[in-house]
Amino acid sequence: MTISISGRANAADREDAMTGDAGTHVFLAQFCMETNTFSDLMTGDECFGEGTYIRSRASLTDPTGLGYNLRILRDLAEADGLVVSESVCAYPEPGGPIVRSSYEEIRDSILADLKLAGDVTMVLLVLHGAMVAEGYDDCEGDILCRVRKIAGPDVTIGIVLDPHCHLTNAMVENANLIIAMRQYPHTDFAERAKELYRLCKARADGVIRPVTAVFDCRMVGLYPTTIEPMAGYVRALEASEADDSVLSTSLIHGFPWGDTPDTGACVIVTTQADRSLAYRVAERLGHQFYAMRDALLPNMPAIAEAIHQAAELDGLTILADAADNSGGGAPGDRTDLLKAIMATGAPSAFGTIFDPEAVDACMEAGLEAQVKLRIGGKLGASSGEGLELDATVMGLDLCHSQTVFGFTSPLGASAWIRSGSTDIVLASIRSQVFGPDAFTGLGINLSNKRIVGVKSIEHFRAGFRQIADHIICVASDGALGMDFAQLRYVNKRDLQYHPRIRDPMALDTLAPLS
Ligand SMILES: [Zn+2]
């Protein structure tokens, strides 16, 4: 059955509606940004450019790139014959707070599209959860309050979050379903999006009545799930849903480098109409997580120690430049680890250094040219010093890209240069390294390397663990300090958290969510 929504929908919505069923009308949008509030790099209109922002229907125009997440939700809705209205898709690289006008413009585009879409029964949003803009320390809460006001009290609102988020009362009060990805690296978006869709559809159809409880774990940290004890904890989350009354359980890891009132880890549990059960399960899972807190503290060697360890190992060792991971909002142009790797003289590769000017210089010089460059060290105080080197231009690509959990993410104009025995990737889009194709896509052979340095903390593992014999995460003086007890929080409400306090649960003061 088709419906006419002429007069209250934009052209894209009307086209979508031609194939839909009037029974349920789904509104989709994605607005994700992980904000490092300690970063000097403001996120303005320039950051919402090609590859990071599509005004509408990204799932149709860029289904294997930026629109990948929305395509998953659209495919599910269309398989059920539902009407789909799709608004903005935005996902800039993490950085400092968003400029107020840039944030408000994108938020208001989503709200305007929602008004135009008319009567919707479900609003499904892909949000990060750690977005901060000038004047807004809880962007997702702000968006959800406004969406709820427009949609009305009966519409089912569901969101899927990155676990590195700040869960707030405004989010919990205005969304019926909140589900965070469980895996870090975040390889399970599709699985969690399906869960969100299934539960939201069931609520919209009147089959379930979800209620939610949150348990504050009073912890700040970083919790990779590829290794124990977190791999086992993910299995415990899955097992907790064996009870039919428990609809969904998620661990919010929190984002340590976002200074907001609600920064920190918590467990969110949704049950079928049983708030007491939701709280009991959240409390049990929260205490189980809390009990692992000392084992979860990061153990990263400094650069010199990491180089020493790598020299003792056979095969290929990946050194992850954790503190300059642009995926956490760092500049991505520090050169201290690269310099130390080059000094070993071992066959090696390093990427990506964000340096558009150096890429331009390589483009000007051309393939096989000998160049003198100063790379990196440009963006801010945490960039450190640049590195001067003599190099050969080995490869150039005007539109380089890499694979990110099944979809393609741009690196922009990029250059492969060789200096000594090190192959280096320079990129003109700031991005952490996800897959080996950030190197091999330019022609670099990784199979003959002893050391490969990557700018990432954790997400690279999904793509590199097949080729790596060893992986070492390295601590440096970059923007993402790993001493979570020393982070200079001003806005975080509860400063009695682990690891700042050894056993904060033993204290009887518990700050409420904002
Ligand atoms: Zn994340």
Q: Could you give the topology of this structure?
A:
Elements lengths: L10 H7 L3 E11 L21 E2 L3 H4 L6 H12 L2 E9 L9 H18 L4 E6 L11 H13 L4 E6 L7 H6 L2 E4 L8 H16 L5 E7 L13 H10 L6 E7 L13 E7 L2 H16 L12 H9 L5 E5 L14 H9 L3 E7 L1 H10 L4 E6 L11 E18 L2 E13 L2 E6 L9 H4 L10 E4 L6 H4 L5 E5 L40
Parallel strand pairs: 1-3, 1-4, 4-5, 5-6, 10-16, 10-17, 11-15, 11-16
Antiparallel strand pairs: 2-3, 7-9, 8-9, 12-13, 13-14, 14-15
Bound molecules: zinc ion.
What does this structure look like?
By secondary structure, the protein is α/β, with parallel strands linked by helices. The chain contains 14 helices and 17 strands. It has helices at 11-17, 58-61, 68-79, 100-117, 139-151, 169-174, 189-204, 230-239, 275-290, 303-311, 336-344, 356-365, 437-440, 461-464, and strands at residues 21-31, 53-54, 82-90, 122-127, 156-161, 177-180, 210-216, 246-252, 266-272, 317-321, 348-354, 370-375, 387-404, 407-419, 422-427, 451-454, 470-474. It has an eight-stranded mixed sheet. Strand 4 (122-127), helix 5 (139-151) and strand 5 (156-161) form a beta-alpha-beta unit. The longest helix is centred in the first third of the chain and has 18 residues, at 100-117. It starts with 10 loop residues before the first helix and ends in a 40-residue tail after the last strand. 55% of the residues are buried. Residues 1-22 have low confidence and may be disordered. Zinc ion (ZN) is lined by residues 162-164, 186.
